[in-house]
TrEMBL record:
Coiled-coil boundaries: none
Family per similarity comment: Belongs to the cation transport ATPase (P-type) (TC 3.A.3) family. Type IB subfamily.
Compartments, as annotated in UniProt: Cell membrane; Endomembrane system
Protein name, UniProt field: Heavy metal translocating P-type ATPase
Portion of the parent chain present: 469 to 757 of 833
Species, as recorded: Parasedimentitalea denitrificans
Length: 289
């Protein structure tokens, strides 16, 4: 590629709100065979809201939700914001709040030992979910994320949060397919939930229940199966995958850590920016050959 054509392509992309931080990203982008995307905050808005709160016998939403929210005020996860917003003001003070990345959190609230998180957190802590597992499975089938709360070692509630699909996501996935690319989703979310959302969006491959450190492994696997890959993400834990992909693409509304690790930055959160980037990349390389 000539420096002039790269400059022209980079300029055209910038006009469309796509910043190429490195010249070779413009060349590498048209070589990718697959686009892998983080789910929360990339395919979805990253602003979940609480949809369902079902308690085990002996517990009520009025007593459990304020305890959960008290602990979640100390977490920065989007799920935490949904739970805090649903609980309202005047929460108790939680102590010993411990985030368990990829699982949830543990805290002491009002003299009670609280656990909130995915089903695997309950399994890890030896808590029997019992009949609420069926409710959780139903919620996951609707594409919602089931979480569980346990108090003093006993299952207390299943809580669902739902995160809407972003404007532009559907159209972007259709365009990737039209451009002959495969599309994959990588997420820490529940496998059943992720599968429903992926099927709805027409995504070809789903890698769910990834622990934060596993996104890179999954990406390496996709690379060996498909060839050059692009990865699109927004979060702190997406940075290693952004660096591993042939082309790392960060959402400009995402975290600074993700932006720093990326080759390409989208000024808006709309995934059609990735489609524009691909189009410019292909046009630039065509002119050169
Ligand atoms: P993702 O970014 O895909 O949501 P995470 O590794 O951050 O992946 O989270 C994986 C899962 O761990 C979530 O879907 C949720 O079930 C659980 N989890 C993580 N943090 C919290 C939290 N603060 N409160 C409740 N559950 C959580
Ligand atoms: Mg994300």
């Amino acid at each position: 590629a000539t420096p002039t054509s790269i400059m022209v392509g980079t300029g055209r992309a910038a006009e469309m709100g796509v910043l190429f931080r490195k010249g070779d990203a413009l060349q590498q982008l048209q070589e990718i065979k697959l686009v892998a995307l983080d789910k929360t905050g990339t395919l979805t808005k990253g602003q979940p809201s609480l949809t369902t709160f079902t308690c085990a016998p002996g517990f009520t939403r009025e007593t459990v939700l304020p305890l959960v929210a008290a602990a979640e005020t100390q977490s920065e996860h989007p799920i935490a914001q949904a739970l805090v917003a649903a609980a309202g003001p005047d929460l108790a003070q939680a102590s010993n709040v411990e985030a368990i990345p990829g699982y949830g959190l543990r805290a002491d609230v009002g003299g009670l030992a609280l656990l909130v998180g995915a089903d695997r957190l309950m399994q890890r802590e030896g808590i029997e979910i019992g009949a609420l597992a069926e409710t959780g499975a139903e919620l996951a089938k609707r594409g919602e994320t089931p979480l569980y709360a346990a108090i003093d070692g006993k299952i207390a509630a299943v809580i669902a949060v739902s995160d809407p699909i972003k404007q532009g996501t559907r159209a972007a996935i259709q365009a990737f397919h039209q451009q002959g690319l495969k599309v994959a989703m990588i997420t820490g979310d529940n496998a059943a939930t992720a599968a429903v959302i992926a099927a709805d969006l027409g995504i070809d491959a789903v890698k769910a229940e990834c622990l934060p450190g596993q996104k890179v492994e999954v990406l390496e696997q996709l690379k060996s199966e498909h060839g050059a890959v692009g990865f699109v993400g927004d979060g702190i834990n997406d940075a290693p995958a952004l660096a591993t992909a042939e082309v790392g693409i960060a959402i400009g509304t995402g975290t600074d850590v993700a932006i720093e690790a990326a080759d390409v930055v989208l000024m808006s959160g709309d995934l059609r920016g990735v489609v524009n980037a691909l189009t410019v990349s292909r046009a630039t390389m065509r002119n050169i050959r």
